[in-house]
Design a protein that fits this description.
about 375 residues; Rossmann fold; Heat Shock Protein 90; 3 domains; five-stranded mixed sheet; 10 helices; elongated
Length: about 375
């Protein structure tokens, strides 16, 4: 048999009769009531045993209700608690109370039914927010466990497939090697998707730590282009890096403050996508800088392809999570979503320009390190 938890309400008032009245009314409705007579005691009680709702008198000696509200709202260690401000003075500022972080306001002498209605309303709000936070924690836990549990067998399977390909156990036919190579590629694609999902989860949960340092985007782009050139050659595509618009003698040319691995991930994703969705023509990566006395200097990277292009109706949602393109080669819809997170974390942005049949250009803008 499950036990129904009673809502706990903290009543704060420097007048004893008021505390007794509020306690009597609310206990008759089945609520658990804690009562304190000043603001300092209220702050200590909230930390010691957080209530589900606070009914807080505004005019109290020492710390008044406005200040108590502000301190509660400014304490990151206190989860959300609805606050109902209670006052006998008509000149008390509703605006000040709401700006301090209160959720509702009622004047004394109050009508019992109105008080109970406001209490029920704020408790519904509290329960709704608590349920949303619970679902968020469950989702985060699920994603974390799922990605971890998936990665382990995928890595093991990849290792075993490579053993077969190296003929460690026995000799295999060329046809079997070809089939194993297909399995290895599929397995790697799935592992990449799991890793990307884990990175997206870390960003969304605020658990992603970036290691900022001076990064040379020219060097990073050159490395990615060098690694992906064999894929482009397999499709007879021209893959080139253009840096001629950069000043050869400029100070800190192409230098930004960022996480090298994450910026590399963005470029690898954009250039890899360009190769994937281009059958003929070329992929060009251009690096340039902007400089203006009125605007911060930026390092700009453009990744332009001659591929299929993206339909206008898809361009507005292309960076959303799990938003797959209509092309049959589209992946999980996580790569661009993650890339946008990474760019925003670096104070930059990612933009798209595309036309069907004419290719696409993804533009990265990052603040230049001064």
């Amino acid at each position: 048999m499950s036990i129904i938890k009673k809502d706990r309400i903290l009543s704060v008032d420097d007048t004893k009769d008021n505390l007794i009245l509020v306690k009597t009314i609310l206990e008759s409705e089945g609520y658990d009531i804690d009562s304190v007579s000043n603001g300092q005691a209220a702050l200590e009680k909230v930390v010691e045993l957080p209530p589900d709702l606070i009914i807080l008198d505004v005019m109290m000696p020492g710390i008044n209700g406005y200040e108590v509200t502000r301190r509660i709202r400014n304490n990151p260690e206190i989860n959300y608690i609805p606050i109902l401000l209670l006052t006998a003075f008509h000149e008390s500022s509703v605006v000040e109370g709401l700006d301090a972080g209160a959720d509702d306001f009622i004047r004394k002498p109050f009508d019992t039914e109105e008080l109970l209605a406001r209490v029920r309303s704020l408790l519904r709000l509290k329960h709704s927010i608590d349920e949303q936070e619970k679902m968020t924690r469950q989702r985060e836990d699920f994603v974390s466990r799922l990605t971890h549990d998936l990665r382990t067998p995928l890595v093991a399977a990849d290792r075993m497939l490579n053993f077969f390909l190296q003929e460690i156990f026995c000799q295999i036919s060329p046809e079997m090697k070809q089939a194993i190579n297909v399995m290895i590629r599929s397995n790697q694609n799935l592992l990449d998707m799991v890793n990307t999902l884990l990175e997206v989860y870390r960003f969304e949960a605020g658990k992603k730590n970036l290691n900022y340092e001076s990064c040379n985007l020219i060097t990073i782009a050159s490395e990615v282009v060098s690694e992906l050139t064999p894929l482009a050659l397999e499709k007879n595509l021209v893959l080139k890096l253009d840096t001629h618009q950069l000043s050869p003698t400029g100070n800190n040319t192409g230098i930004v403050n960022g996480d090298r691995l994450e910026l590399r991930r963005v470029l690898n994703n954009l250039i890899g996508n360009a190769i994937k969705f281009t059958d003929t023509g070329s992929i060009e990566i251009r690096i340039l800088e902007t400089s203006s006395p009125h605007h911060p200097s930026e390092v700009i990277i453009e990744v332009q392809d001659t591929g299929y292009g993206i339909a206008p109706e898809d361009q507005g949602t292309i960076f959303e999570r799990f938003r797959q393109g209509r092309n049959k080669r589209s992946g999980s819809g996580l790569g661009l979503h993650l890339s946008q997170y990474i760019m925003e974390a670096h104070g930059g942005k990612i933009e798209l320009s595309s036309a069907l049949g004419k290719g696409s250009t993804f533009t990265l803008r990052l603040p230049k390190k001064t």
